[in-house]
Amino acid sequence: MPSRQWPNILITGTPGTGKTTHAAQLVEALQSSPSTSSATWEHVNVGDFVKEKGCHSGFNEEWQSWDVDEDKLLDELELVQQAGAKVIDWHTCDLFPERWIDLVLVLRCDHSQLWARLEKRGYQLNKIQENNEAEIMEVVLNDARESYAAEIVVEMQSEKPEDMEQNIERIVSWVQAWRADYGGDDDGDDEP
Predict the structure, then answer these.
(1) Has this prediction a pTM greater than 0.85?
(2) Number of domains in the chain
(3) Which helix H or strand E contains 191, and what residues bound it?
(4) What residues contact 156, with CB distance under 8 A and at least 6 apart?
(5) Residue 51 among known ligand-binding residues
(6) Is 20 annotated among the ligand-binding residues?
(7) Domain containing residue 160: CATH number
(8) Where along this sequence does the record place binding of ATP (predicted)?
(9) Is residue 142 domain-resident?
(10) 18 marked as binding residue
(11) pLDDT per residue over 65-114, tens digit each?
(12) How far apart are CA 165 and CA 182, in angstroms?
């Protein structure tokens, strides 16, 4: 049984699958739902967190990203996640200790749509190709399944606005069920 009053949710997936948008909209939905609004929900965008807290060893020009200092990142996040009510958003998941996370959502997107999204972001060709191959090979999904208990890993499609709306509704219902099981005051399904 978790020692937290509220769950921590990890939203992960290949870059371009909609993690940040999902996380922001989920926090908004949880803050406005009467059964979950008593918590102060926080979106933790790990990419931004790495920059803000200096959890890196510098910028990698070839990949146009920060070289993450994983030990420093985990030390900084240890403090943040303890209270629960966090929606953590990052492109990988196997770094986070299992005890921190109550639900892992792996967003998926058709690879041709993903390619177009990454081009629109201005990614370099090598980065587009690597991310597209990762999506086709289900790298993030496999990492999640290897790193966490099967019952907390949920694969969700993220290709159109309706997918996001349905995903958010399912997750809010799951949080309500989690609270009923561990926090003692909400009802709902326990499967997102």
Answers:
(1) yes
(2) 1
(3) none
(4) 105, 106, 107, 108, 163, 167, 170, 192
(5) no
(6) yes
(7) 3.40.50.300
(8) 16, 18-21, 121, 160
(9) yes
(10) yes
(11) 888 999 999 999 998 999 899 999 999 899 999 999 999 999 999 999 99
(12) 26
